Amino acid sequence: MELVPLYSGSSGNATLIRAGGTNILIDAGRNCKCLTQALFDVGTDPCDIDAVFITHSHVDHVSALDVFIRKYPSKLYATEGTFRGMSRRFTKPHELTPDIIIVPGEEFQIAPGVSVTAVSTPHDASGSVCYRIRQGGRTCMVMTDVGYVTEDIKRLATGVDAILIESNYDRRMLVYGGYPEDLKIRIAGDGGHLSNDDCAEMMKYLIDNGTRKFILGHLSENNNTPDKAEQTVCEYLSAHKLTRGVDYTVFIANRYSPTVALEV
Ligand SMILES: [Zn+2]
Ligand SMILES: [Zn+2]
Predict the structure, then answer these.
(1) How many separate domains does the chain show?
(2) Minimal CA–CA distance to 35: which of 56, 18, 17, 16?
(3) What are 39-75's pLDDT values in tens digits?
(4) Rounded to the nearest whole angstrom, what is the distance from the C-alpha of residue 55 to the centroid of ligand 1?
(5) Ligand 1 midpoint to CA 199 (Å)
(6) 139: CA distance to ligand 2 center in Å?
(7) Does residue 172 contact residue 135 with C-beta atoms inside 8 Å?
């Protein structure tokens, strides 16, 4: 299995997961042109996408979906709340059939040997979830827009082999930055995003439970930098005697272009 961030950040999100012969897209932000170009850049024909999973209806996760799914029909999976939230973004209605409605907490098979489990997140969009993919005895997870790490999220993430994990903002940059106070409160609140420090703590927990491969994602354009995110998590982990390259590997997902094809 391979975990391939196509682009990541408040400006737009999409992640490709190659699970055996099944190509899964998680989220479809930016626009269809950017999405198809990113797929071609990593050597995947958009026609070969088998399933699109949407985490939630915020625009940075769904803005390419309407055009993409018409041009390259594949199965679309989302929770009922997400369908409701994003239907107003579509120019034409999509058919809602039970096999594409996600029920958080239930693992289900999307292809022989490939299964997916969703977990609800406290992020401020109705029906918001993140997904864990299992194939060939390996698991990976895309864990962004989580608000805070609930016990359910923690349980599902425990023991995954690789994870794209949210490292949205640097606390100092958010507090001293130019955002309006109510937006600062929203971002740092339970329905917002994980800070670099929150991410570091979760990484420590995951490493203690066997996870080795990390990609930091969904970095804020205004309240974070790749260097800050990387430095914060590595310093925290090093203070807990965890060494990069020995105990774990970490990449930072690019904002506008594919990062690595991380072997899970
Ligand atoms: Zn969101
Ligand atoms: Zn987002």
Answers:
(1) 1
(2) 16
(3) 999 999 999 999 999 999 999 999 999 899 889 999 9
(4) 9
(5) 16
(6) 22
(7) no
